[in-house]
């Protein structure tokens, strides 16, 4: 798909974006291979610990409270008893009003504070308000901002508007890293997923992210592979690494390992780091820690001992 993008003068000159068509059958065949891989013993344990270190532990509910955020941050610091040698997660992701609470609770750790912004999850607010929300979250100490793209503008073919809005949010982030959520479940086709990925990367995304977790389908192996291929092609062309975050619907340790294999075989070992790959996790951590506990003593523990608040 070839589209013309005419950004505002502030964000650059007009350019043509050429996104290759997606072979949906080929994507299906390739992702099926990842589901048949068998990873066991020490390799499995190492992979699960790596998955924990890549998680953005998330709570994005209307019932969130400062106490719930502090509890989540404690879980992020120590997901399992110290005997399990389990690393902390990569980040805790919250709504903007709770950024200061999370920053204080995570002080002294390596865990980043992430905040959704731009009228998450719909993105349906005037750009001025979305930018102000971004500046507020970054100003309160968020290390990372997870924004949603304007899906209505994208589906209407107004790619210049989508580009400009992403670039404006990137400016509003200051020193915070920007994760751009495509909400792939609303994009209608894998060709659109590829085009949206390329558009977000060109507009300045540090990471591209599948979903808000509020729309189904959310993350799948297929859409994630399409996005990984966009990152790969950008790296080949420019030498610049872009991060990837599948979010929503990944609940089992087995699935997490499939994603890690796919990342390594598509992008290479350099991306097997929380600096370049994340899982949007709410329930995923529970199953991963259950599997890690089993690798220590050979028996499954109670899920309630590992569940999130």
Mean pLDDT: 94
CATH superfamily: Aldolase class I
Termini distance? 45 Å
Order of helices and strands: EEHHEHEHEHEHHEHEHEHEH
- State the domain count: 1
**CATH topology assignment:** TIM Barrel
Main sheet record: 8 strands, parallel
The structural class is: alpha/beta
| Regions with little confidence, pLDDT below 50 for 5+ residues | none
Which radius of gyration do the C-alpha atoms yield?
19 Å
Helix content: 40-55%
How many alpha or pi helices?
A: 11
Spatially, the strands of the biggest sheet line up as 9-8-7-6-5-4-3-10
The amount of beta strand, in percent, is 5-15%
CATH class: Alpha Beta
List keywords for this structure.
309 residues; alpha/beta; TIM Barrel; eight-stranded parallel β-sheet; two-stranded antiparallel ribbon; 11 helices; 10 strands; 44% helix; globular
Question: Mind explaining what this structure looks like?
Answer:
The termini are far apart. The strands form 2 sheets. This protein has an 8-stranded parallel beta sheet with strand order 9-8-7-6-5-4-3-10. Strands 1-2 form a two-stranded antiparallel ribbon. The longest helix is centred in the C-terminal third of the chain and has 18 residues, at 221-238. The chain is globular and about 60 Å long. 44% of the residues lie in helices and 13% in strands. With 309 residues, the chain is an alpha/beta fold. It has one domain (21-305): Aldolase class I (TIM Barrel, Alpha-Beta Barrel).
């Amino acid at each position: 798909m070839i589209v013309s993008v005419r950004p505002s003068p502030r964000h650059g000159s007009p350019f043509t974006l050429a996104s290759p068509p997606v072979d949906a059958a080929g994507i299906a065949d390739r992702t099926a291979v990842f589901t048949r891989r068998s990873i066991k013993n020490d390799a499995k344990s190492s992979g699960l610990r790596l998955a924990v270190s890549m998680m953005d532990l998330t709570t994005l509910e209307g019932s969130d409270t400062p106490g719930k955020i502090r509890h989540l941050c404690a879980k992020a610091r120590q997901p399992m008893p110290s005997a399990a040698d389990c690393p902390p997660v990569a980040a805790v992701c919250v709504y903007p009003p709770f950024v200061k609470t999370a920053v204080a609770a995570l002080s002294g750790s390596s865990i980043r504070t992430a905040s959704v912004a731009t009228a998450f999850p719909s993105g349906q607010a005037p750009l001025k308000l979305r930018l102000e929300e971004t500046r507020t979250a970054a100003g309160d100490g968020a290390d990372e901002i997870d924004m949603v793209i304007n899906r209505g503008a994208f589906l209407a073919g107004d790619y210049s508007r989508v580009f400009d809005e992403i670039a404006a949010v990137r400016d509003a982030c200051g020193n915070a890293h920007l994760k751009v959520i495509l909400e792939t479940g609303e994009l209608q086709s894998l060709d659109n997923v590829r085009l949206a990925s390329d558009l977000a990367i060109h507009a300045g995304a540090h990471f591209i992210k599948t979903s808000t977790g509020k729309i189904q389908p959310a993350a799948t192996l297929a859409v994630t592979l399409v996005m990984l291929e966009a990152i790969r092609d950008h790296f080949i062309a420019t030498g610049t690494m872009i991060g990837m975050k599948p979010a929503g619907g990944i609940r089992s340790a087995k699935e997490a390992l499939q994603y890690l294999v796919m990342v390594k075989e598509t992008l290479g070992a350099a991306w097997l780091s929380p600096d370049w790959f994340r899982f949007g996790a709410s329930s995923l951590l529970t199953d991963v820690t259950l599997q890690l506990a089993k690798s220590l003593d050979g028996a499954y523990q109670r899920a309630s001992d590992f569940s999130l608040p």
